Amino acid sequence: MDRYRISTWPPPLLDLINELGMLPGIGPRSAERLALFLAQSPAADVERLAESIRTARRGIQSCATCGALSDRQPCSLCQDPRRDLGILCVVEQPVDVLNIEKTAAFRGRYHVLGGRISPTRGVGPEDLRIPELERRLQDQPNLELIVALGSDVEGDATAIYLARRLAGRCARITRLAHGLPVGSSLEFADELTLRQAIENRRPLQ
Q1: CB 187 within 8 A of CB 96
Q2: 141-181 confidence digits (pLDDT tens)
Q3: Cα→Cα distances 83→7, 75, 175, 194, Å
Q4: Greater confidence, 2 or 190?
Q5: For the residues of 39-75, what is the DSSP string, one character each?
Q6: What's the CA angle centered on 105, arms 101 and 107, to 5 degrees?
Q7: Fewer CB within 10 Å, N side or C side of the chain?
Q8: pLDDT digits (tens, 9 = 90+) for 148-157
Q9: Could you tell me which residues come within 8 angstroms of residue 174 by beta carbon, excluding any fewer than 6 positions away?
Q10: Peptide bond before residue 74 is cis, with ω within 30 degrees of 0
Q11: In contact, 133 and 161? CB cutoff 8 Å
């Protein structure tokens, strides 16, 4: 039984707490505080928030080219003529594109894998956007491929797999270096750390 159901709070408030508690990073106490805040906020403010959520859900999609989040096809990064077409940065998730862009240290293009190889979770190479990456390399083989994955075991395994599978299809394959501690994820790295990692990348082959 849902633990919130034993409360004497009004059912609509309990439903809101349960829904908010499903969000990443939101624990039970945070869900309660947010629910109470929303329940007591002006109706216009709550409606504006709800409409923003609906609009984002309807309008945001994955770029068919790179896999980043966008409101258009292709995304603004892929359409930007100022981007360096000779460098392609491979990341795990769309949020990693946003994190790297915040550093202002990278001016190339991106490719989102959609995950990383993880046998314990049943994720293999066939579950990632590797064929799409290979097709992009066919169109432009003489580029540098930066593998910008976390430095934990799964990130290392995915990076090594990509380096072997894509060997000879790029002019150079590098990986983020100094700045990312072992076992960390890009999601939790600050902008300075990511900048240093990009600028000090090292070859994988």
Answers
A1: yes
A2: 789 999 999 878 899 899 999 999 999 899 999 988 666 66
A3: 55, 13, 20, 19
A4: 190
A5: HTS-HHHHHHHHHHHHHHHHH-EE-TTT--EESSSS-
A6: 70
A7: N
A8: 998 788 998 9
A9: 144, 145, 146, 147, 201, 202, 203, 204
A10: yes
A11: no
Helix (H, G, I), strand (E, B) or coil at 37: helix
Start-to-end C-alpha separation, the chain: 54
Interior angle at CA 71, CA 65 and CA 76, nearest 5: 55
Give a three-class secondary structure readout of 82-146.
CCCCCEEEEECCHHHHHHHHHHCCCCCEEEECCCCCEHHHCECHHHCCHHHHHHHHHHCCCCEEE
Tokens describing residue 90:
């491979």
Amino acid symbol at 73: Q
Task: For strands 87-91 and 109-112, give the pairing.
Answer: parallel
Encoded amino acid at 176, one letter: L
